[in-house]
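tool=predict chain=A
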Amino acid sequence: MSGLSYVSRFLRGFLVVLVLVLVLAPAAQADVRIKDIATFEGVRGNQLVGYGLVVGLNGTGDRLRNSPFTQKSIEGMLERLGVGNLSEDEMKTENTAAVMVTAMLPPFARLGGTLDVVVSSLGDASSLRGGTLIVTPLTGADGEVYAVAQGPIAVAGYAAQGANASIVEGVPTVARIENGATVEREVDFAFSSLDSVRIALRVPDFTTAERVEDVINNALGPNTATALDPTTIEVRPHDKSDMPEVLARVESLRVDPDSVAKVVIDARSGTIVIGSDVRIDKVAVSQGGLTVMVREDIEVSQPEPISIGETVVVPQTTVAVEEREAKFTVLEGDVSLQRLVDGLNAIGVGAAETISILQAIKAAGALHADLEII
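tool=predict ok
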């Protein structure tokens, strides 16, 4: 009896330890879905473009003298509508503007579906606010018409002008029409006729491609996926009867993507993005600055009342030099992202100085990452 009690207590203790291990075990690294890092070859949108006219503008349209293509378009439109030929002197409208209309035809768009379109002025119109786009065919790269756009446009920006001042907010010569185009032609694409599907990674990487291959083979069976190169993984499902279901399962699988260490710098805005895998060898960094300020003040010298003289402009120039004390900071070997940021903050530098420091460290061969300046 005592032996059974000992075994029972041992089993209960083992179960408690097992539960604690499962509960207290560290969570796995957050993975991403395949659909978020890759696309299926052949499943893509198509750009559409068209030329049209916007009418109903309140005197902010193209000036026909500067935009002869607008005049020709108006003449052609009126002729199609049964209006006789008009001379150049009789056509002086400023309520019409020539525009380019662009849209993106999504994959598997069907007849009767709607698209959002962007309307952009082509001539010298000052604003498209309040206008209406006349029926405009939208063609693809093959020259075929895939959609037709028409409707009132919505402008986000505005422009106001007076005799001596003007103000412009946003871009009033670019507008949108929500659901402004109707699909007239479909792009044929049948999944059922495919024997295999290729997955294209948005960021090519051999490690990520191998991980995607392993995840798909574990979920759909061995030899289902094969990594062809750092961008392409070919999927040959054993059951090809329901290809959409197979792709739905594939795109929902989760994988841990890998990426190269990179530092991205936007010199115009002073934005710096440092990846988590960036490493720096042991270096000593010193940053000192010399600031020279030149200020020009304009003063006016006038003659005394009831005297003969002229009013002259007298410039006053002030030059000041400010030198900041340089400090050395030693960055130890194999510096992580946090220690790198702490070290740069210890020097007390701004974004512009940090950009120069990173470029100098890269030139010294101590920055083990791609330095990309945009």
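The chain has three domains: 46-183, 191-255, 263-373. Confidence is low (pLDDT under 50) at residues 6-29.
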